[in-house]
Structure to design on (612 residues):
């Protein structure tokens, strides 16, 4: 065990040295080589050393500071504390609404569909998965959807796998619809200046088109499973018993929790207009509203306040993000990303259209094997560098957002939602998803939706 | 006072290959909530408790979904309960067990119970074989005897 661990670390170290060596060959200076090598350590850690990723990030930041690749002041600036605090606030809020039964109440909506048919079922789980992912985050959303789907499939004694896959695909697509759907949404919003309204008017409609296309595709792909469900519905009757099985009485707490969450969403969606009205700096309200709401929740439920912070906030992941952002900022600080930006431009022959396609497809393919936050964190400073080279950045930000989320559908490890839902499926039903069972439908959906986005970004003037 | 002076030496244990249904029957028969799992060399390899049984039969997502009220038991819970006879103890037992050395002082056992939030701790000899079990009652009783 110990030897295996030592060999793994030797392998990691060799990979980092190799990256450093390649960086030197392409003409980077010593600071840039250190910055890129340390950042690559985080990339390799998410790919090969998941349990060690925070430890590796800690050491990496230490090395960057000691070697004077970045100074303390800039390191803190690059760590994007505003994004971390936004995520903390949202996690506390999600903890509250989870506790008061909001998600379970939402899930019962599916169970209450009258005259259930397989088509209605697929439509409902797809739309609800996407909308839930838009309102909270993809991981919370998929846990509830997977739970609901497993209950329904158990009741009708059918295999849940196709429906779980449909829900995951919809969740990943839905997570592009708003700033809240995915950590990369808020990361891109804070770095690009795009507002919640921009997401609603530009990202949401495109997400919806991709979702509808996916629904029709999966209805064709899984027609056998749907036929079986229809037969079972005829055999076992409608879902009255299911309605009795899971229920959440609409208590005062649920209504209050719903009210707080709804108000938070409303203010977040109006943040840009209110910031203009009150003469506030861009994104001030976007970032402070979740904090005010979370603070109010902790006053309301003061006895559980510590629990919300300690149990509902995923500090492990947030610390990793914080350090990752600092490392990505260092790439820009040393000028390494400017070098990459110029190399990419040479590759695409300075064509804006080709540049959009390159960013979109690179982020889609990259996020199919890599955590999309790592990928987007690396891409953000590169995209920022294009501004100095005279490019309009808006389509590039959308390309990064959609590529980073749609790519998650391509492989079964493409996004956290995939891993969480397939883990539940394996634990509950002992069904282990094979790479290729996922890959063919995942690749088809991933390619088609990314292609739709590509066409939209190239053709529609609203994205420019 | 050392733990070996207050521990229960005659401890019923089960083997890792025992089926979970039999192990659960034994818990019910003995009216206890957990049993140590010992391999053929007498080494402690895990603990089988009612908590593990609950974790096995309830949906794995139950802790994550907040308030998800089942007004009736879902089919799966009944199926998983019936399926316990096909599962071995080693597949569901808790593998990380808090233990103490037989020469540890009473105070240290009490501290371990408080900090690790456990009610009973298996006691191991130098070869890591289980030689007894110490319960919270044993510790309190020993303190009381000392005070008197």
């Amino acid at each position: 065990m110990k030897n295996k661990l030592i060999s793994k670390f030797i392998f990691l170290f060799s990979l980092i040295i190799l990256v450093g060596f390649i960086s030197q060959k392409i003409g980077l200076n010593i600071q840039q080589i250190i910055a890129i090598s340390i950042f690559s350590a985080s990339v390799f850690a998410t790919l090969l050393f998941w349990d060690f990723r925070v430890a590796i990030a800690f050491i990496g930041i230490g090395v960057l500071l000691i070697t004077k690749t970045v100074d303390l002041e800039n390191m803190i600036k690059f760590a994007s504390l505003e994004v971390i605090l936004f995520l903390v606030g949202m996690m506390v809020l999600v903890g509250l609404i989870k506790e008061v039964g909001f998600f379970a109440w939402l899930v019962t909506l599916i169970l209450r569909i009258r005259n259930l048919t397989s088509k209605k079922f697929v439509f409902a789980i797809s739309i609800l998965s996407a909308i839930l992912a838009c309102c909270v985050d993809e991981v919370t959303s998929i846990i509830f959807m997977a739970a609901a789907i497993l209950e329904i499939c158990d009741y009708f004694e059918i295999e849940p796998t196709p429906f779980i896959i449909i829900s995951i695909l919809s969740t990943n697509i839905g997570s592009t619809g708003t700033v809240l759907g995915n950590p990369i949404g808020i990361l891109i919003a804070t770095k690009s200046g795009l507002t919640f309204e921009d997401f609603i008017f530009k990202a949401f409609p495109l997400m919806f088109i991709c979702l509808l296309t996916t629904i029709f595709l999966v209805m064709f792909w899984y027609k056998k499973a749907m036929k079986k469900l229809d037969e079972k519905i005829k055999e076992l009757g409608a879902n009255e018993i299911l309605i009795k099985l899971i229920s959440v009485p609409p208590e005062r707490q649920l209504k209050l929790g719903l009210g707080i969450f709804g108000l938070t969403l409303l203010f977040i969606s109006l943040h840009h207009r209110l910031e203009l009205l009150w003469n506030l700096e861009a994104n001030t309200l976007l970032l402070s509203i979740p904090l005010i709401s979370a603070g109010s929740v902790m006053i309301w439920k003061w006895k559980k306040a510590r629990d919300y912070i300690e149990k509902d906030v995923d500090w492990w992941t947030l610390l990793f993000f914080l350090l990752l952002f600092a490392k990505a900022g260092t790439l820009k600080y040393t000028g390494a990303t400017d070098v990459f930006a110029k190399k990419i431009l040479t590759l695409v022959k300075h064509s804006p259209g080709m540049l959009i396609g390159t960013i979109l497809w690179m982020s889609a393919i990259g996020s199919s094997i890599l955590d999309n936050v790592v990928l987007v964190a690396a891409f953000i400073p590169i995209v920022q560098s294009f501004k100095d080279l005279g490019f309009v950045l808006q389509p590039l930000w959308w390309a990064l957002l959609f590529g980073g989320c749609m790519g998650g559908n391509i492989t079964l490890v493409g996004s956290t939602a995939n891993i969480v839902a397939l883990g539940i499926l394996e634990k509950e039903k002992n069904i282990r998803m094979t790479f290729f069972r996922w890959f063919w439908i995942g690749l088809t959906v991933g390619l088609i939706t990314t292609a739709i986005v590509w066409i939209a970004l190239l053709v529609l003037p609203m994205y420019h | 006072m050392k733990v070996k002076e207050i521990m229960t030496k005659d401890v019923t244990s089960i083997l890792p290959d025992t089926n979970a249904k039999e192990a659960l029957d034994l818990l019910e028969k003995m009216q206890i909530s957990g049993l140590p799992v010992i391999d053929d060399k007498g080494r402690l390899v895990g603990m089988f408790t009612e908590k593990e049984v609950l974790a096995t039969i309830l949906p794995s997502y139950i802790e994550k979904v907040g308030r998800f009220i089942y007004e009736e038991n879902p089919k799966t819970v009944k199926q998983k309960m019936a399926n316990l006879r096909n599962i071995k103890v080693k597949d569901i037992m808790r593998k990380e067990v808090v233990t103490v050395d037989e020469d540890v002082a009473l105070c240290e056992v009490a501290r371990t119970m408080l900090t690790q939030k456990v009610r009973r701790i298996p006691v191991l000899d130098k070869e890591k074989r289980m030689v007894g079990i110490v319960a919270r009652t044993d510790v309190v009783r020993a303190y009381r005897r000392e005070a008197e």
Summary: Chain B touches chain A at residues 59-61, 64-72, 74-76 (CB under 8 Å).
